[in-house]
Amino acid sequence: MSEGASDADRFLALVAAAQGRDNELTSIQASLLVAAELGIARDTRTFARMLGIAHSLVLREVNALAEREGVLQIVKRDTRTMRVHYTLPPPDEA
Predict the structure, then answer these.
(1) pLDDT, tens digit (0-9, with 9 covering 90-100), for 46-79
(2) How would DSSP label each residue in 36-86?
(3) Residue 14 class from Cβ within 10 Å (0-12 exposed, 13-18 middle, 19+ buried)?
(4) pLDDT for res 93
(5) Can you tell me the distance from the alpha carbon of 4 to that of 60, in angstroms, rounded to the nearest whole number?
(6) pTM summary value
(7) Is the pLDDT assigned to residue 91 strictly greater than 80?
(8) 49, 50, 75, 52: which is closest to 62 by C-alpha?
(9) 88 secondary structure, DSSP code
(10) How far, in whole angstroms, is CA 43 from its chain's centroid?
(11) Which of 53, 55, 62 is nearest to 29 (CA)?
């Protein structure tokens, strides 16, 4: 198995684990949280491009996550590109 495939398998396992801890998370939401935790993507355009998902879907899911207390914080919005930068809250706030 190639390293890329094992990285993808690890990512998917982490997404499944996140959904196991919180059954309200959609697959995209869990993926956003894992990507932020691993430093893979911290903005919606990068995340959408890397996972081959429509940016509009990612925007919807990141906004839903931001509405939940202590799950995800939006730190910047670019009105021209509609890119949203986000971060995970510090562990003591989660």
Answers:
(1) 999 999 999 999 999 999 999 998 899 999 999 9
(2) HHHTS-SBHHHHHHHHT--HHHHHHHHHHHHHSTTT-EEEEE-TTT--EEE
(3) middle
(4) 52
(5) 28
(6) 0.85
(7) no
(8) 75
(9) P
(10) 8
(11) 62
Q: Which two tokens stand for residue 92?
A: 């003591």
pLDDT score, position 1: 44
| Other C-beta atoms lying within 10 Å of the C-beta of residue 51 | 16
The end-to-end CA distance of the chain, in Å, is: 36
d(CA 4, CA 94): 31
pLDDT tens, residue by residue, 19-56: 999 999 999 999 999 999 999 999 999 999 999 999 99
Distance, CA of 41 to CA of 37 (rounded, Å): 9
Q: Evaluate the CA torsion angle 48, 26, 73, 38 in order and state its sign.
A: negative
Per-residue pLDDT at 4 exceeds 70: no
